[in-house]
Design brief:
The complex is a heterodimer.
Chain A lengths: L2 H12 L6 H9 L1 H22 L20 H6 L6 H27 L3 E7 L6 E6 L7 E4 L5 E10 L4 E9 L13 H5 L4 E5 L5 E5 L3 E10 L21 E5 L2 E4 L2 E5 L3 E5 L4 E6 L3 E6 L7 E6 L2 E6 L2 E6 L9 E7 L13 E5 L12
Antiparallel strand pairs in A: 1-2, 1-8, 3-4, 4-5, 5-6, 7-8, 9-12, 10-11, 10-17, 13-14, 13-19, 14-18, 15-16, 15-18, 16-17
Chain B lengths: L3 H9 L3 H23 L2 H17 L11 H19 L20 H7 L3 H11 L5 H8 L3 H20 L9
Helix pairs in contact in B: 1-2, 2-3, 2-4, 2-6, 3-4, 4-7, 5-8, 6-8, 7-8
Classes of the chains: A alpha+beta, B mainly alpha.
């Protein structure tokens, strides 16, 4: 090794560093390198001596205020955090429990929902369906007043997890009412004593009707009030069935003026039954899938029923398509008024054409 | 004695008292280093204050695992000095007063040191006077340890040549 090659290691020796054996061996025998080493050491010593002569002035005292730096949200978001193992395990359990409860809530809504769908088979007349809310008393009752031979009212009184207490008012009138002499009202129904029964969803409840046979109630719970009680929710499709006339939330327009707006819904099959609507001041309106005496023919376009009355265009606008037929018949009695002033309020319901509200026997 | 990591944890949480300890321990050394680096006492004082202020304001930037706090501080100070040198016009003598105003200090070695290039001067001064290790110097100058060794050798050789030359060489400062 030559002196020039060893020179850098001489410098490293000054700094207390170890050097390669060949360099160490050369420096040990080379007087030039040892002179260089001595020179470096003297330089260092001289530098330290001179710096020691510098005046030792005090550094300016400063006060560093306690300053809790608030990291930005981005910085916080990127930071990691430590949590105890048991806390992590608890977190997992909570997530699993929450996920499970969602499933339970959904399942519960279907099995123990807030609406009781009842299939009612009276001893007289046609079967009906009732949707009774368990939580909203406004929708917690249904009644059948027509035909008046058998009056029926069913009301939710209370409920538990798996059964519903029903208040039933029913009365069979063996003697047919005199033609046109009487039309039953809610007030008539209220006069009948109410009996309480516990109904178990999924099971049949049979109630003996004096002199007429049995009233049979079947059905179950569902999680919502269906738009049409005559359909199970899963059966309700936007396309009306064959022969069906479906009236949901009808609005009647004369020209561009709204005559009335109903919230109710009803449906009939092409079985000689009709839907009638009464609005105070607007008279009685009847929609029929079959021709009626005095009725005008109307054109059906999906959810609209258009017809002319006294030369003026009228349109029923429904929430869903009305029927598969192309035509319906509309009967209007502008002078109709319920005989009982207490009943002078809007109604919408199914009727037998022979027993329309405006028929003489019902006036 | 708390480690750099423990102390820095306190500082990062905004503990002014902990930072004041760091200031008191290092301020004099940093100022002396800057005085040699700039040749100006007032500039050194200003840059020292700037160095600590920068450290306090951006304390999240220091990572203890990447080196000692002292070398990090000297790294900031060195960059401040380099920035200061960039603002000085080439060839124009700095407005600095002599860094060693006392007669005793106007030694030959001091004169020779002032003739070294800026980086060699600061490197040699940190090694010989501050006693910083190769690793610390590598951190301060942001260079590999092997480069520290070769640059220290170059600085010593230059200083030795100047010191022993009969006439002062015109070395770049």
């Amino acid at each position: 090794m030559r002196c020039n090659d060893a020179a850098e290691f001489v410098s490293a020796l000054c700094d207390g560093e170890t050097i390669p054996p060949k360099a160490a061996e050369h420096i040990g025998h080379c007087s030039t390198c040892r002179v260089r080493l001595q020179g470096y050491l003297e330089l260092g010593a001289e530098l330290r001596r001179v710096s020691s002569l510098e005046p030792l002035s005090e550094v300016t005292s400063r006060r560093w205020m306690n300053d809790r730096q608030t990291p930005g949200w981005w910085t916080k978001g990127r930071e990691s955090m430590r949590i105890p193992r048991f806390a992590f395990a608890l977190l997992l359990l909570v997530i699993v429990a929450l996920g499970s409860s969602l499933v339970l809530v959904r399942a519960k809504a279907r099995t123990a929902g807030a609406v009781l769908m009842l299939n009612v088979k009276p001893p007289h007349g046609v079967p009906i369906r009732c949707a009774l809310s368990l939580v909203d008393k406004k929708w917690g009752m249904c009644a059948q007043l027509n035909p008046p031979q058998y009056l029926l009212g069913i009301e939710v009184l209370s409920h538990t997890e798996d059964q519903v207490e029903l208040g039933v008012r029913e009365q069979f009138n063996p003697a047919p009412l005199g033609a046109g002499s009487h039309r039953a009202s809610i007030e008539d129904l209220q006069k009948i004593p109410q009996k309480s029964y516990w109904f178990h969803p999924g099971e049949k409840l049979a109630i003996d009707v004096s002199g007429a046979g049995q009233l049979e109630l079947t059905g179950g719970l569902t999680d919502h009030m269906p738009p049409l009680v005559n359909w199970a929710a899963e059966d309700l499709q936007i396309d009306p069935g064959p022969g069906e006339m479906r009236i949901i939330s009808p609005i009647l327009l004369r020209g561009d003026k709204v005559l009335f707006d109903f919230e109710g819904a009803s449906s009939v099959q092409k079985d000689r039954r009709v839907v009638q609507m009464y609005s105070p001041g607007q008279g009685l309106w009847v929609l029929s899938p079959c021709p009626l005496v005095g009725a005008v023919e109307a054109e059906v376009a999906l959810s609209r029923v258009k017809f002319k009355l006294n030369g003026e265009p009228h349109t029923f606008v429904m929430a869903t398509p009305v029927t598969r037929e192309q035509h319906l018949w509309v009967l209007h009695d502008p002078h109709y008024k319920p005989s009982d002033p207490n009943l002078d309020r809007p109604f919408l319901g199914v009727a037998d054409p022979e027993r329309l509200a405006n028929s003489p026997q019902n006036r | 004695m708390p480690t750099d990591r423990e102390r820095w944890k306190q500082i990062c949480s905004g503990d002014g008292t902990a930072f004041n300890e760091v200031y008191r321990e290092n301020a004099a050394g940093i100022r002396a280093f800057l005085r040699h680096a700039t040749g100006n006492q007032q500039t050194a004082e200003d840059l020292m204050q700037e160095t600590f202020t920068a450290l306090w304001q951006r304390r999240n930037r220091y990572l203890p695992e990447q080196g000692s706090l002292r070398s990090y501080l000297y790294g900031i100070a060195r960059k401040r000095a380099a920035d200061w040198w960039r603002t000085q016009r080439p060839g124009e003598p700095s407005q600095a007063e002599p860094s060693f105003p006392l007669a005793e200090m106007t030694s030959v070695v001091n004169d020779a040191l002032q003739r070294l290039p800026h980086e060699q001067r600061t490197l040699l001064w940190l090694r010989e006077v501050e006693g910083q290790s190769y690793a610390e110097l590598a951190s301060v100058f942001d260079i590999p340890v092997g480069t520290v060794r070769s640059r220290l050798f170059a600085a010593r050789e230059t200083l030795r040549r100047i010191w022993h030359s009969p006439c002062p060489e015109k070395e770049e400062v």
